[in-house]
């Protein structure tokens, strides 16, 4: 009788162990399947692009309306050069060549001139018109014009703590916004047809036009822009008319620069540590095991006791 109980207990234990192993196996298979599906989805996404198509025939002189367009996911090899991939990029533009129903909307058939002639009417719904002051370098020498799209970056001081415990300000370049519509340059809203023949009559007018640029930002972006303008300097980066992609961009600092130039060294302090093992951020190299602590843009090595 005692042996039967032992065998019964062993059988129950083996059964539970078998169930557990089966569950582990099924979980592993499910994870493998999910990873395979995710990779397949990523490959599919990389090989396709959302493109705007016309839902009806659009005649020259008409203004682009969101109800007249639809977005279709299209294989990359079928995307025409200059095809529009973002509705924000063409909203309010004027058609200068016929667009047939079912045709890809192409920038070559649209005019940068927008229907609105005043700033309020040119501001897209949900956006706010925010003017910023930039220098000639930040505004690309005055070559940015209304209707262009830009990325906005800012050079700001970031508080950092040294190894001695002092707080210092270190400059860093922060990516703020991407694919931002330029509403106006100076007092120019839209792109009048006669503008290519217009020449600036004085250097003062050119400076005024180039150094005051109005952007279309969301309410939250407008708040952030106002804060950044009080802290540092803003610079604009001009985008291609056919490029509306938003990509992740890391902030730029001394560590990021040295990492980019010398990938083997994590930072200029790391490179100095390789050449002079006894020095690192003004500290002696710990003789024993240590941990690295980052304070802002600084790295400190603390020995383990």
Query: Helices and strands: which structural class?
Result: alpha+beta
- Count the DSSP helices: 7
Helix fraction, binned, reads 25-40%
Tell me how many strands there are: 14
The domain count comes to 4
Q: Detail the poorly predicted runs.
A: 192-209, 266-283
Give an account of the 3D structure.
By secondary structure, the protein is an alpha+beta fold. The chain folds into 4 domains: 1-45; 47-115, Antifreeze-like/N-acetylneuraminic acid synthase C-terminal domain (Type Iii Antifreeze Protein Isoform Hplc 12); 123-241, no CATH class; 254-303, no CATH class. The chain is built from 7 helices and 14 strands. It is flat, with a radius of gyration of 29 Å. It starts with a helix and ends with a strand. The model is unreliable at 192-209 and 266-283 (pLDDT under 50).
Summarize the structure.
The protein has 305 residues and is an alpha+beta fold.
Indicate the topology.
Layout: H1 2-46, E1 48-54, E2 69-75, H2 87-90, E3 93-95, E4 110-114, H3 119-122, E5 128-133, E6 149-161, E7 167-185, E8 188-189, H4 203-211, E9 212-217, H5 219-231, E10 233-238, H6 254-261, H7 268-275, E11 279-280, E12 283-284, E13 290-295, E14 298-303
Antiparallel strand pairs: 1-2, 3-4, 5-9, 6-7, 6-10, 7-8, 7-9, 11-12, 13-14
